[in-house]
Amino acid sequence: MKRLSNHFQFSVGLRQQGSASVSGREKRATGGGRIAAAGSGHNPKKRTRFLRGLPRRRNVPRFLLLGSICLAGLVAFPCVAAAQAEPPVPEFFNDIGIAQRIGDPLPLDALFTDETGKEVRLGSYFGKKPVILALVYFECPMLCTMVLNGMLRAINALSFKSGADFEIVAVSFNPKDTPELAMGKKTTYVEGYRQGNGDGWHFLTGGQEAIDQLTKAVGFHYVYDEKTGQYAHASALMIITAQGRVARYLFGIEYSARDLRLALVEASKNRLGSVVEQVLLMCFQYDPSTGKYSLAILKILQVFGSLTVLALAFGIIVLVRRGKKKEL
Asked: Going by DSSP bridges, is the β-strand pair 167-172/201-204 parallel, antiparallel, or unpaired?
């Protein structure tokens, strides 16, 4: 009996200790930590005053934390995948470009074939008028068409007329292009030309030797990509003088009508255009690095300075004459 009573008292004691520990945990969870703070010798009021200016800690739900991690992964994964999947730039791209050859002559004796199948000398399109030269190939899927479209838009905005004021020569650098393809291209662009009936438009094909002579003369570097069966090349229009020398380059696929007009005037040695073009050429100068015409500040200052001197001289002459009349 004593053992049972002792065992009963021991179990009751354990239960009381367990309930005391549970109540202690509940008190700590509900603010009972003040007892522990007081028992440790710390002032709870001072602690709360010290922590009053700091933000309270709040438990972040786990689903929000996991959602943020997943969202960050979804945002970062496409960037990493794109960087890993980006193909390397082919080495032959370093061989593509245009090295300007301003002032150099074209191979006027090179033989090509026009859109009718007739063999022609390149020099047969020179002698009297400047020439707009476009190096393209007629089965080009995109860039060459954009070059010719940009040229057509610029030419349609000019007051000059093809055939009368300038010639247009589009030469294919693909030796496999045929006169039939050249005729198809010519028909398409002559129909879109608004300034005339298509006089002065010429689309040529030729052999590799003649193509190499012409592209080398104007500094046009291109590469044939065997994997795609297409040519990698730059885009530009070349403005050639009537004597067959390179005058200007207009880069890109969109060409300003102003730049094209000024380039034709310069290539014609001021035979084309009016006084307006002459004044514009005094205020604008060709920038070889961009292939465009920009304002020439020094030229503008020189023009205004000359006008100022002329105005002063005229004023002095008028005053001198008036003074002489008064003396008489």
From this structure: parallel
Of 158, 171, 148, the closest CA to residue 253 belongs to: 148
DSSP characters over 216-236: HHHTEE-EEETTTTEEE---E
Domain 95-270 architecture: 3-Layer(aba) Sandwich (3.40)
User: Average of pLDDT values for 160-183?
Assistant: 96
String of DSSP letters for 279-320:
HHHHHEEEETTTTEEEE-HHHHHHHHHHHHHHHHHHHHHHHH
How does residue 9 score in pLDDT terms, banded at 50, 70 and 90?
very low
pLDDT level of residue 59 (50, 70, 90 thresholds): low
Dihedral angle sign, alpha carbons of residues 181, 183, 185, 188: negative
3-state secondary structure 139-202: CCCCHHHHHHHHHHHHHHCCCCCECCCEEEEEEECCCCCCHHHHHHHHHHHHHHCCCCCCCCEE
Q: Is the pLDDT of residue 115 over 80?
A: yes
Specify the pLDDT at position 28. Answer: 45
The 10s digit of each residue's pLDDT in 183-208 is: 999 999 999 999 888 899 999 999 99
* Phi then psi dihedrals of residue 175, to 5 deg: -65, -10
Q: What is the pLDDT of residue 36?
A: 40
Rounded to whole angstroms, how far apart are CA atoms 179 and 137?
12
Which residues are paired to 245 by β-bridges? 105
DSSP letter string over 16-36? HHHHHHHHHHHHHHTTTHHHH
Secondary structure (3-state) at 58 = coil
Q: How far apart are CA 293 and CA 295, in angstroms?
A: 7
Report the alpha-carbon distance of residue 72 to residue 214 in Å, rounded: 56
Determine the Cα–Cα distance for residues 81 and 75; give it in Å rounded to an integer.
11
Strand partners, 136: 172
Q: Please say if the pLDDT value at position 66 is more than 70.
A: no
The residue extents of the domains of the chain are 95-270
